[in-house]
Specification:
about 30% strand, 3-stranded antiparallel β-sheet, binds magnesium ion, alpha/beta, globular, glycosyltransferase, about 220 residues, binds inosinic acid
Amino acid sequence: MASYLPIADDEKGHELDLFCVPKHYENDLDKVIIPHGLIMDRTERLARDIIRDMGGHHIVALCVLKGGYTFFADLLDYIKALNQNSDKSVPLTVDFIRVKSYCNDKSTNSVKVIGGDELSNLSGKNVLIVEDIVETGRTMETLLSLLSECNPKMVKVVSLLVKRTPRSSGYRPDYIGFEVPDAFLVGYALDYNEYFRDLSHICILNDQAKEKYKV
Ligand code: IMP
Ligand code: MG
């Protein structure tokens, strides 16, 4: 089982005014739950664990857009740092896939995969899927079944966050940054109807903001 840093259900978080938060979001957020620095520290360790397990063969890092892009960029920076500072190194290439399953703060039943036509390039490769958050697990299960048709050599999944929720299918990624309470989280590229990607810390959205940015 993957180890992870647990964020407790009764985690009080940190007052917003202890950190730098964009002015345009000040009234939309309750607390900072995971400060940016802690995300970076945990990501550095995930990079080390991934290279330990996958470092023997060309890695294709597959970013699940849009929510995964910040984590993807930071994780790859740490993997690159390991690659350029050790006697052993592996080629790393990147690919991107777009998946959409959310409307407002609810997971919809349909998982749409957009831009998956180059998936056949993954045949024979060590594929690392990089995701922002696993909630029900449906997105990842859909993606994994699509990918298995392309016969990759190995597939591993890293998700920065996994939500503790009764809606989970039971699916668990191979690498997990944090396990988080069943609340709607934004920041560090996690969005609510496309807002809050431009926020560095992971925060809990307040109910007023759910109304304000509703579509
Ligand atoms: P799943 O298919 O239910 O596991 O949902 C996964 C996708 O839903 C993630 O990749 C996110 O894009 C989105 N998602 C789930 N929970 C949250 C959240 O708390 N904030 C923002 N996006 C979320
Ligand atoms: Mg996502």
